[in-house]
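Hey everyone, long-time lurker, first post.

I ran two proteins through the pipeline my lab uses and got sequence/structure pairs for each. Pasting them in order. The first:
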Amino acid sequence: KNAAPFSNARTLFDTGSSFLRNNAPVKEAELKLAAHVACHSSTSTVDHLGSVVEEISKKGISLHRTKCTALINSVIGPVVHEDLLEDVGSGPYSLIVDESTDVTTKKQLCIVIRYHSKKFSRIISTFAGMINIVAGDSLTIANALFKFLDENKLSILNCIGLATDGCNTMCGQHNSVLQKFRDRNPHIVYIKCVCHSLQLCASKAVSVLPRNVEYMVSQTYSWFSNATQRLQKYSELYKTINVGESPLKILQLSDTRWLAISECINRILAQYVELKLHFQLTKDSERSYAAELLYQMYSDNINLIYLKFLQPIVSELNRLNKIFQLDKPDPAKLLTELLTFYRSLLERIGLPKTFQSWQDIMEFNLSDENLLPLDAVDFGVQFRLALLEANGISDLAEQDMKRRCRDYMLELSKEIRKRLPDNIKQLEALKFLSPSHTLSSSKPRIEDLPFFHLFKGDVGKAEQQWRVIHTLEWNNAEDGKTEDFWVEVSAYTDTAGDRNFEDLGNFALSLLALPFSNAAVERSFSQMSLIKNKLRNRLEQNSLLNIMRIRAYMQRRNICCHEFKPSPRMLSLFTAEIYSAPPEKGGEESTNV
C-alpha cells in the first residue's frame, strides 16, 4: 500500500480498459502530453506530470510511462514519419549521410533528406532516419542505406544528390559508399561537405607556421581553465585598466574544429596588453614556469604579428564555414563565395594574371615560377602595420616571418584546390539559376544549365518556358531570393489556370535542393546527444528514432508542442493495440547510473 504511489505495475487490462472510457478530447490531450514529453522531457517524468495534469484538469486524463512510450513509438512517431514520406512522394530528393558514436559507443548512421516540399512551398532539410550499424565499412553503410530506402519506398533513381564527409569509406574511388550508389544510380550528384574540407584546409596550412603560435593560443586557455583564483585576479586587473569593464572569456582551441581558432585569436588580440601584464605579474607571484613562458611569448612581437596576420584569413574562412552551415543558404552564391576567396589568395601570392573565367583560376599553376617575390607578396594591412610598430626585429627574422606567412597562404591555396568538389564547374554554374541570370536576355541555353541530364520531363516544353520566363514580371526577382523566385515560378498560373512553368520550376528547385554541407546531419547528432545522454544511456533505438522524428516534425512545421494538433490518423491508431508491440529491454527510460 505504501509503495502504491510509486508503482508502475499496472496490468494490461488496467491500461487497456481506459480506452473504453476515453473520448476524443481526452485522447487528444494525452497525445499532446506525449508530444510535449518527446520534445522537452524524459518519459520518466510523465508518471508525476500525468497525475498533476489530471488533478488540475479533472478530465479523466491517464498518462504514465508505459502509455506515453507506446504513444511515442506506435502512434505519433510512425504517423509523422508517414507525413514526411508523403511529402517527399515520388519527387527528387537528396541525402546527407554521416556516422557517429552515441554515449554507449554504438555506431549510429544518421540520414537527413533534403527536398522541395510542395506542401510547404520551400526546400526542407530534415531528419529521416537513424540506423544502428555494427561496423563502419562501406558495405555495411551502403546496405543499411539501401534497406532504409526500400523500407520507406523511396526510389534510389529519384535520389539526385548525396553529401558526406570526405573520408575514403564514403567517397573513395574504389568500393566506397558513393561507388555502390552509382552502381544503382549512375547520375547521382556527389558533393563533398565543404565545411569539413575548410576545417581540414585550415588545420593543414597552419603546420607551416611556428609551433609556438598555436601553443600560445591553446596554453592561454589552459592557464585559466578550472582556475577560479587566476580568473578572479585577471578580472580585477582587467577592470582596473579598463575602468570597470569585464574581460572576455578566453576560448578553447579545438583539435577537431580548427576554425574555432578564429574566435580564440579575436579574444586574445582584444586583450593582448592585459594578458601580457597578467603573466608578467604572475610569473613572479606564483613562481610559475608556464606563466614565464607565456609572458616571453606575449613579449615577442613576432608572435603578435603572426596573430594579426592570421586573424583576417581565419575569420574569412570561418565566415565561409558559417555560410555553408546555414539552414537556408542561396546555392546560386555558395560556390561563388568559396571561389572568390580562393582567387583572393592566389592574387596575394601569385604573379599578376587576368583570370577570364573560374576555369582559369582552377588551372592556375601554384609552382614557384608563378609566385611573387617575397617582398611583393600582399601580407595584409594588419601585418604591415604591426611590422611598422614592432621594435627589435632583425632583417633575418623579418624575412623568415614573411616566408612562413607566404608559405601559409600557399599551403592553404593548395589544400583548397585539392579539396574542391570534382564537379565544381557544374556546381558553380548553379549561379545561372539566380533571378538576375534567369531573367537576362543573354542567359545561356537550357542545355547549358548545370546537371540538365537529370531533367526527366518534356525538354521542348521546358525550353519554351526558359525562353519566355524573362518576359513576365516576378515578385521575387532579386538576387538572394533564388529559392523564393523558383517557388513563385513553379506555382505560376495563367488566366486559364494552367501552370505554364511547373516543369522548369520543379527542375530548378530540385537542383537548389542539392546539399552542400553536412551541417544538417551534425545538428541531428547534437539532438541525439541531448536525447540519449549519460542518464538515459539505455534508451532503446526505437524510442530514440521516434523522439527524433517527432522533434524533426515540429521543426519542419515551425511549431512547438503547444501548437501540435493530433491528426485523425493518430486518433485512429490510439487503441489498446499500441501495447501489443514487443516491450523494450529495461523500458524506455531505464538508466545505468
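...and the second, right after it:
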Amino acid sequence: MTAESPQEEVQIAPSTEGKMPLAITKEVKSIKKELVENDLDVVSVIEYLNDKANKQFKASSKATARLVKGRFSEGYTVADCKKAIDTKAKNWLDDPHWQKYLRPSTLFNATNFENYLEESRGSDLPESSPPKPLELDFSKGEA
C-alpha cells in the first residue's frame, strides 16, 4: 500500500473536528449574547419611534441599526434614545414641515443626538413661575 491510502492514515491527536476549545466557545457565546441584546435594544428603540411618530421604520435596516448602535457604543441607553424621541416628537409631530425629520437618520445622527437629549433633560426640570416684574418706587428717591 502507498502512503496516500486512507487505510494507512495515522492521527497523532484525537479529532476535535468541528469543536472549539471551551474558552473560545464561552467567548463566542458571550459575544453572540451581546449582539442579540444589542439588536433587541435597536428593535425596542425603532418600535418606540414608530409608535410615537406613526411611522414604519425597519429595525432590520442596516443603516438604521448602525445609527442606533452607534449611540449605544457611545454609552447612551435605550432610555436616552426614548427621551430624545419624546422631545422631538413633542416639538415636531404637529408641524408638517418638521414632522418629516422624525426619522432615525436625523434623531440618531451623532451630531444631533446629544443636543436632542440635552433638550429633553432641560424639559425634565420642574416648571417655575415666570419672574415677577421689577417694581420701581421713585417716591423714595436715592438711598
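Reply from user beta_strand_b:
Welcome! Quick read of the second one: Residues 22-53 form the longest helix (32 residues). Residues 22-124 form one domain.
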